[in-house]
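Dear colleague,

Thank you for sharing your sequence with our group. We've completed the structure prediction you requested, and as agreed, I am returning the results in plain text so they can be pasted directly into your records. Please verify that the sequence below matches your submission; if there's any discrepancy, let me know and we will rerun it promptly.
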Amino acid sequence: MPITEDEFRTIDENTSVIDLTSDTTQGRIYRFLLENADKAFRQREIVDHVDVPRGSVGPTLKRFERRGLVEHRGHYWKISDAEHATASAGLLGAATADEIDGGFSDEQIDEWMETAVDPIDGRDEDGGGEA
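Please find the predicted structure tokens below.
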């Protein structure tokens, strides 16, 4: 399965990619902190607000901290200011694009992907145009 360029840039030899999809523990914790960027929380409070196993919160937060996604002071954790700015810019860009073109449903995207042509397939071996 392909990964995004951002995910690619976060890979080093000893670190795996963090899966932030909404159905994962990591994704749920990340989204909660991002949606509450103006607050900091104790681990217990994160467990109370997010449907994740209690024992997974601490290790997940430490992993996020190593990647610069969260900040930690005393017993409190919050999304980092840089991460909040980056995520907010991405969400704003996506919302703006959807406003301009009306957005696409998941079904429309799946349909398009079935017939999409990879532009690299049409290149000759020298990297130029079609052969």
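Summary note from our side: The CA atoms of residues 6 and 17 lie 10 Å apart.

Kind regards,
the structure core
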